[in-house]
Amino acid sequence: MRTSGELVASLLAGSWRQQPREPTLTPTELANIAPLLLQSGAGALAWRLIRNSPLAATPAGNELQQAYRLHALQAAVHETNIRQVVTLLRAAGVESLLVKGWAIARSYPETGLRPYGDIDLCVRLGNYAIASETLRAAGDRYPVDLHEGTRLLDYHDWDELFLRSQLVPLDQMSVRVLTPEDHLRILCFHLLRHGVERLLRDVHRQD
Fold first, then answer.
1. Among 89, 8, 100, which Cα is nearest to 46's?
2. Domain boundaries in the chain?
3. Per-residue pLDDT tens digits for 157-202
């Protein structure tokens, strides 16, 4: 009998690929791990894997579908907020660098598969005050985590990371993000410093 951890790993293996493999779980196995998938933020990924299988019609499948819908709606709201925030900052003469969140979620094959909470933006040290004031003047209605440079994220300085950064499309505008290599390093540092927010810490204790 496979443990909960083994079932989760089996289901999610390769789930981010364009053409993931068919799930091999039974309805009972899916029901057992559905709470873990939902708590970890992987519910949308799991739904993508089972939506064309008989598992989609199970109660657990319905819960995962609802998570998928919720994350897709949240992603749409986040993208609207990102467009508005970046536009506000540019109007104030500040070019920002978007890290984590949408910058990573855009690598997934569908919107909403990688949920995130806030908008992490880095600005040049000399622009932090005006960027902060611009957001404050907007009523602080945007969930922005504003970083002064990149010193708390990486050992490379702002100028080096900015020079290598890329403009990528978000609907009718472009947003500046890190190169894949720089982003991977920063994500690894973030993991080491802060841990995983949705860590499946109770996987083995469920058995």
1. 8
2. 4-70+197-206, 78-194
3. 888 889 999 999 998 899 999 999 998 888 888 777 766 555 433 3
